[in-house]
Design a protein that fits this description.
59% of the residues lie in helices and 0% in strands. It is an all-alpha fold. It has a domain at 12-43 and 76-137. Helix 1 runs antiparallel to helix 5 (117-137). The longest helix has 28 residues, at 12-39. The chain is elongated.
């Protein structure tokens, strides 16, 4: 829809603003799917070698299902390094400059992050228009 209305042309700015507006909604949906998948039951099959049960339990307790644990152990130092790098990047889901700019514009207009895909599309159109207008005013 955004492309057909001329509101998306695939530029760096368009992609970054799109990520800013939609990434949290996409992440929430993915988290919901993961939770649903991990807690559903895999039914027994005619293949006697195929384990069955809840994926969450099968992953964390493979011995209960006659399976081997293939988890690769990681040192605490490696985990801390990943956490540090993640913390340094913050929760930025797009280009940091575009993130800051979008945050400033939203603050100036007393706007909140989108809660629905339709709201995210409207927010995207608004932010894109504001950023492009800023460029033309200079």
């Amino acid at each position: 829809m955004l492309k057909s209305t001329g509101d998306f042309n695939g530029s760096f700015l368009d992609k970054a603003v799109l990520q800013f507006c939609f990434m949290d909604l996409i992440q929430e949906e993915l988290n919901s799917i993961v939770k649903l998948w991990n807690n559903h039951r895999i039914r027994p099959s005619s293949n006697p070698n195929q384990p069955y049960g809840r994926p969450f339990l099968m992953y964390h307790c493979p011995g209960m299902f006659g399976c081997q644990d293939y988890l690769c152990r990681t040192s605490e130092a490696q985990v801390n390094l990943c956490l540090e790098e993640s913390f340094q990047k913050g929760n930025v889901t797009c280009d940091e400059t575009v993130f800051e700019l979008c945050t400033i514009i939203m603050s100036d207009h007393n706007m909140m992050p989108a809660k629905t895909a339709d709201d995210a599309a409207l927010l995207y159109q608004f932010l894109r228009r504001e950023i492009l207008n800023e460029r033309h005013q200079d």
